[in-house]
Amino acid sequence: MGSGMKPRRWLSWELVVFGTRLRNRIQYVLKVPRVFRNWWAWPLPKLGVDAILELRNGLRFSVRGGTDDLAALNEGVISNPYLGSGHIELRQDSVVMDLGANMGDFTIIAAARCPRGRVYAVEPLSEYIPVLQTNVALNHLSNVEIIQVAIGDHEGEVAISVAGVQSSIYFDSGTKRETVRITTIPQLMRDHRIDRIDLLKMDCEGAEWEILPAAREVLTHVKQICMEFHPARGWTAEKLAAFLRESGYEVWYTESGWNGSLWARRARYSDPESRPLSISNSASWPPI
């Protein structure tokens, strides 16, 4: 009987995964006409045909056929896990850092919401850089800076397993690998003279556990965080929430068996330690 439990557990898990995916797809299909102006073109990328999909608010996205660009866009504009929670606020002049920008679904939305701000679209994989550039140009956005680099806890190079939206340094999710430069958030802020981040969005497929501890020295200058996380290497949702609360954030999160979403927000810049930094004439910024 004991040996028969494993197949039943496996079947039960597979049914849960299948049910979740089926429910999501049904929700997507029902919402597509309300989200996309040219809803009739929505299935084309699934059929291997490139398409430009336009949202009801006028934002446009180039979606490559035969890739998982459509999956990224669906998550960003239909599920809307990052901004749809109600915990995140964006002003017209907000500075946003998008780690794991992929094809630009979140980058474009954030840039449109923050016309007097700046969005740093950080994406390590070379295949997504032209897609990002195309989507920025399609929407006539001048407040986006695309940065090709991976973010972690050190400087150097790293190999990424390439698997579309599941590409990862830590999860061997693909058969192809690409070697890219890796840096940290503090170093990226120095390099690009970024004195504050109003929203840090993260979709880093396991790298989050190294990125955030390595960014501890500048977290007082990061007002809000929204992210996907993956329980791994001893990290759990509770441990991540505790780390961020110790760093001065209010935290909310949801989790499933294989990943979760988290939103964190600190008090408004009200004390000298958490005001935007001045980096003029400061070669050693941020303070180490």
Fill in the keyword field for this structure.
single chain; 288 residues; alpha/beta; 7-stranded mixed β-sheet; 3-stranded mixed β-sheet; 22% strand; disordered C terminus
Provide an overview of this structure.
This protein has 288 residues and is α/β, with parallel strands linked by helices. It has a domain of 196 residues: Vaccinia Virus protein VP39 (Rossmann fold), CATH 3.40.50.150. Helices cover 30% and strands 22% of the residues. The chain contains seven helices and twelve strands. The strands form three sheets. It has a seven-stranded mixed beta sheet, sandwiched between helices. The chain has a three-stranded mixed beta sheet with strand order 6-8-7. The chain has a two-stranded antiparallel ribbon with strand order 1-2. A hairpin with a 5-residue loop joins strand 1 and strand 2. Helix 1 packs across helix 2. The radius of gyration is 20 Å and the shape is globular. The N and C termini lie far apart (59 Å).
Describe, in short, the structure shown:
The chain is an alpha/beta fold.
Q: Give the proportion of residues in helices.
A: 25-40%
Give the strand line-up of the largest sheet.
Answer: 5-4-3-9-10-12-11
**Mean pLDDT across every amino acid position:** 85
- The Rg value, from CA coordinates, equals 20 Å
Cα distance spanning the termini: 59 Å
- Give the C-level CATH assignment of the domain at 79-274: Alpha Beta
Question: What shape does the CA trace take?
Answer: globular
Order of helices and strands: HEEHEHEHEEEEHEHEHEE
